[in-house]
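[job 0412] stage=complex_fold ligand=acetoacetyl-coenzyme A status=START
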Amino acid sequence: MSDERTSGIDRVGVVGLGTMGAGIVEVFARAGLSVVAVDGTPELAERGRGFLERSTGKQVQRGRLSEADQQALLERVTFAHELTALADVDLVVEAVPERMEIKHDIFGTLDGIVRDDAILASNTSSLSLTEIAAATARPERVVGMHFFNPAPVLKLVEVITTILTDEAVVTSVRDLAERLGKKPVVVRDRAGFVANALLIAYLARAIRTYETGHVTREDLDAAATAGIGLPMGPLTLSDLIGLDVVKEVCDVLYAATHDPASAPPALLQQMVAAGRLGRKTGRGFYDYA
Ligand code: CAA
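[job 0412] stage=complex_fold status=DONE, emitting structure tokens
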């Protein structure tokens, strides 16, 4: 492992181009890094390109980005549907669905593809990073790099470490997050890390409150925005995060702490079972045309 590589991360990969992955691609490309963006099929890779074009297109419309800069940004990103496209990147961020068997499969495969000195990062919000790292022969080069939704806007990046993570890797990833204009915080692998450990019991309480029927969804959300000064009400925020993700983090926190405040409310479980996952499916607590 050369020092240049540890300190200079210039070429990155992102695996999984859903809401979070596409946002993370945008963050890297905006910061001038060259990005290889991978999803499982040519169609999903194209959908990822569409997200990036639309999101940067909105910034052009708002006068925040020139057309020439948008073009340059898009040219920094290559889309692919095979993990082998990541053979020469310095770091990969995985942002695929939150299922341990999928993460294991991807980390195990990536381990055999990327250079020995490359860093493997996961954007997991609920799974154990230690278990993910165990799928590789390089657990000391595996970290969490947990972005917040919408990734291009929110500043926090939780840098998750395990008992095996190399200190130099932590420093590299923290420096990278700062280069992206983010605020990194370093957290040891633990259910909910820091931000979700604070947030999820509040969202679960809001859903339970709504479930009692004594307040409308709009008024409940207004209590948080107009009364407590939060940027979004908890039901709107749950729809933004994705109700499946909220439920997964509830499950993990509840299993780890047995704190009833983190237990997934019945309504949340039913909405997930019914496929009402929030914005991404067009329907959650609110409807999105
Ligand atoms: N992609 C790119 N840019 C976006 C965006 C997106 N998805 N959404 C909003 N923006 C940009 C807008 O373009 C706008 O940029 P300019 O100021 O340059 O024009 C800026 O963000 C503000 O957007 P809006 O004016 O449309 O709306 P707003 O001021 O109401 O802000 C918000 C929207 C940023 C989403 C704000 O409401 C907010 O911060 N909400 C709370 C979000 C939050 O708490 N997220 C954390 C969820 S927890 C999580 O993600 C972790 C997990 O593991 C579950």
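The beta strands are 11-15, 34-38, 77-80, 91-94, 119-122, 142-147, 156-161, 183-188.
[job 0412] exit 0
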